[in-house]
Every structure is written in C-alpha cells, then in structure tokens.
Amino acid sequence: MKKALIVSYNLVREGEGQMPLSIASIMAYVKNDPEYGYKFEVDHLPFNLLNNNLNLSDFENCFRNVPLNNYRFIAISAFVWNEYLINPLIQFLRKSGYKHKIVLGGSQITYANKDLLKIEYPGCDAFVSGYAEKSFLEILKDEDSDKSYYNSVLDFSCIPSPYLNGTFPLENGHKMLRWETKRGCPYKCSFCAHRNLENGRVHYMQQEKAFAELAMFKDKGVKRINVLDPIYNMGSDYLPIMKEIDRLNFSNAEFTFQSKIELLTKKDGPEFLNLVEKTKSHLEFGLQTVIPEEYAIIDRANNVEQIKQQLEILNHRNISYEVSLIYGLPNQTVDSFKASIEFAQSKGCKKITAWPLMLLKGTPLFSEKERWNLKEEVVGDFDIPVVTSSNTFNK
Predict the structure, then answer these.
(1) Half-sphere exposure of 212 (CA within 13 A, CB side)
(2) Is residue 132 a contact partner of residue 154, using CB atoms and an 8 Å limit?
(3) E strand or H helix at 239, and its extent?
C-alpha cells in the first residue's frame, strides 16, 4: 500500500488543535475515496510555528523518528509564513536519502509563475495549484505519471466535512476551531491573494453540510468558531446559516465573521445584524484605508458615507466588531495613515488592528512594486518580507 506524508508548518493558537482546516479538508477528501485504506493512506506531520520551544530549522531533529522512505510521497504546504523553510526542507530530505516524490502546494505555488516553479524549488517533483483536494488524490492514484503540475477543477458538492467524518476530531468543550461556508472572493483588491483563486469565483459549500457541522459543534460545546470566508455576509446562503445558528442556540459559543461594511446596507443587512445580536457574534471588517488616493490604487473602493452610517448603527446596537487597516500602501504617508485611524476612532470603533503591507505572489501590487518604489524588509518572525518604505514614506 502506498503511503503519503503531508508536512505542514502552521500558525496554531492554543486550543485550536494541530491540524489546519485546509489540511483536514484534503485528508477528508482523500479518505472518502473507496480505494483509501488498502491502496493508499495519508499521514500528517504538523509543526506549530508559534511554539517558540521548537527549532523548526533543525530538520534532523524534527524528522528523527520519521521513516522517510516508507512514504512514496511527501507533500509540503507552502505559505508566506513558512516560505523560508521550504527549500531547506527539500534539501534536507534529498540529503537524507529520500528517493521518492516531493509535492508542493499552497498559496506560494498557486500564485507563483508556473514556468519558474522548478527553478524556485529545485528538488521538487510536482506542484499543486489552486484548491488541492482533487489534485492531491490524482497524485496518489497516478504515481508513475511524469506530470509535474496539477490544477484540477473541484466539485464543491463533493467535499466531505473533516469534522463529520472524524478527520478533525473534536473533544467535548473544544476551545476554538476554524470553519468555512464558502471559498473565494469576487472583489479585486490588488494586494489580496483571494481574488486570484479560480478567477475570482466564489464557491459555496453545501448548506446541508454546514447545518450538520453546526449541530456537531453545538453537541460538542465548541467555545469559539472562527469563520474563514473572506467575506461572510455576501450571497444568498449566509442568512439561512445565521438563522440555523440562532435556532441551535449557541448561548455559550462565540462566532467571528469576516464581513464587508457596505454590504450591511443591502435589504437583508438589518436582518443579518439582528441575528448577529442574538447569536453572540463578532464582526471583522477589513477597511484598509479611507483615503481616496490610497484605496483607488489598490482597487478597494470604499464608500465612506455608507461606512460612517453603518459604524454608527453597529455602535447603537452595541454589536461587537473590529476594523483593520493596512500600513505601507502606495501613496500613503504617516499623516494619511493617522487619518484612517482617527476616522475609525471618531466613529466609535473601540478595536482597531493594523497590518503591514505584504506583496504576495500573483497579486497586481506584487508586479507594480517598482512603480511605487515599494521596498521590503524581513521584519519580525517567520522571515516574511513586508513593505517598509516607498515614494511617500520612509522606514
């Protein structure tokens, strides 16, 4: 029987469990195949980058008890927060005598230049672009293929739930988990990687599956459910899901939803906020900037008047929410960044978070950095390059 190993470097907070939802979904999909268990099997080896006691560059120590050549495939998840480990790990595996196929997937592969992948990641045999569930199953079933690039179209009605089928085991009173009801985003913010996946399409999970997962979360007494949808309050499915959350009476659980402020002005916006009030939910709004000279450049049109109005409504209803901004944007200055902060404060926002601009592979801003003289430096943990100066601000 063929065996595969998925190696993932994750950012896991206390109480979440060691398996990311993305890996759990891939493993649930593979396990759902009738040949699983007698023709092939998959193991998962997770490392938590937030665990400061673990030296993750010491691969010899990390893989000491792993029988590498028992695995016909070793798949590695490649994201911006673990990019600095990928090539050193591939080199370690080859120097250790690993003779079989190494596979890379994740956003660093999806948004990379397809023709340069072999150069960027020498020693790797196959690359998975896009949603990986079906592609990874094809790799397992077609070991002898010389194909090196996979980007299979995924039928979202056929993705089993990793929670319901036991791939991601839940304990009673589970502290925190991540959940999704849809993937993708229709908007075109030039700094964001979500827009490129599947050409900007949004894919909805089966509502019946979402309801069954919610019933399980309720039964297990899950304390916090972080919804990963890039924009939860869009489409036609989110209100029925909110109503089901309300019907199940999650009185001891908190939900967090990434939402768009302007969508609250739609005809179903007031009903959504009514349900938010009833279900102990927290809303996260990616405002980024309120300065026209900044949001026009990043294709993130903000309707400032609507935002003002809705923030007042949120405050009046005493709904829990936060606003996030980005610093390091083209055309931004120290004063204009202060103006965005002061705007949110003046509208009664009590929690404001700020993130440095990252130039992610495949995004329009990544290819336009010379136009704005955007300079990057590695700042903080995980060797992630962030913008620290431009034509309009210095470090």
Answers:
(1) 11
(2) no
(3) helix 238-248
Tokens of 143: 């070991």
d(CA 205, CA 155): 10
Residues 301 and 291: their CA atoms lie apart, in Å, by 10
Distance of alpha carbon 382 from alpha carbon 78, whole angstroms: 13
Query: What is d(CA 257, CA 264) in angstroms, rounded to the nearest whole number?
Result: 13
**Model-level pTM?**
0.93
54-89 tens-digit pLDDT: 677 789 989 989 999 999 999 999 999 999 999 999
The two structure tokens encoding residue 283? 């809303």
The 3-state secondary structure of 317-328 reads HCCEEEEEEEEC
Q: What is the pLDDT of residues 21-35, one digit of tens each?
A: 999 999 999 999 999
Q: Is the dihedral of CA 29, 148, 39, 98 positive or negative?
A: negative
Cβ neighbour number for residue 303 with a 10 Å cutoff: 12
Q: At CB < 8 A and 24+ separation, what contacts does 335-342 make?
A: 336/289, 336/291, 336/293, 336/294, 337/289, 339/290, 339/291, 340/287, 340/289, 340/290, 340/291
